[in-house]
Amino acid sequence: MNRLRLEYATEAFLNAMRREYQKERPTDPVPIRSLQEYTPAQRSALMRAVGAAIKNTRPENDNAFEEWSQKRSASHT
Question: Are 50 and 68 in contact (CB under 8 A)?
């Protein structure tokens, strides 16, 4: 995934997080900032995390997903 697309996905994630926070706490200031308001190191960390999450949804990671899903099901019974 190219960096621009990853930046876009990270900003979309942060926007969704801000909306959810506002729904639950409409009178509180929202602590989740736009991507540009974070330091370069924080932006890189956020983008790495979003990139890792996206990579985990790829078909080549289906075995890891199945293993996680089975463990999750076992712990929720």
Answer: no
List, in order, residues 6 or more apart from 6 with CB less than 8 Å away: 47, 50, 51, 54
**Contact residues for 76 (Cβ-Cβ < 8 A; gap 6+):** none
Predicted TM-score (pTM) of this structure: 0.84
pLDDT tens digits, residue range 18-44?
Answer: 999 999 999 999 999 999 999 999 999
Asked if 53 and 65 count as a contact pair (C-beta separation under 8 A), the reply is no
pLDDT at 77 over 90: no
Q: Which amino acid is at 39?
A: T
Q: Which of 54, 67, 64, 52 is nearest to 75 (CA)?
A: 67
Q: What would the two tokens of residue 36 be? A: 């540009």
Q: Vertex 72, ends 68 and 73: CA angle to 5°?
A: 120
